[in-house]
Amino acid sequence: xxxxxxxxxxxAMISKLLARARGNAKLAKLLDPAKAKEIxxxxxxxxxxxxxxxxxxxxxxLLILIFGLNKALxxxxxxxxxxxxxxxxxxxxxxxxxxNRPIIPQLVQxxxxxxxxxxxxxxxxxxxxAYVLGEAGLLAMFVAPLAGALGMPHYTLAYNLSKAMxxxxxxxxxxxxxxxxxxxxx
Length: 186
Fold this sequence. Notes:
By secondary structure, this protein is an all-alpha fold. The protein is built from seven helices and no strands.
């Protein structure tokens, strides 16, 4: 019930803004309720992704620093843990209408999209770490003093920065592909 009231209030506010924006076609187009809903979904997807990123980074660092796994394997494991969390929360919160659909086909679609995301993430993560930010990378001279100022090894800061950049880029792939395929028609 509170969600229904919230939607009614939001739609009433948008209607008032649309009435004021009649003379401004660009503003009216921006305030279209369908676009507002999609922007809201994107921000929910990004918040779920933030939780996923915490899981991803935490697992990545745990596997590399504590268990000594190589970066590629650790990244695959941490990315997979984040995908499972993201699927669960996106199904429950970002796209709640999707719960009317069978879970297994939807999970398979989500994982296939995210395998593409993993491949992108892996390429960006390992490429930036090896060739740009790592100890032999093009920007190593800037990363080293920052790592020193933060009291951490260059190695650790470089792969975490690389992972952060990869995560932001892959966010757009994952949202777009899942919106078009996994959550189409919602």
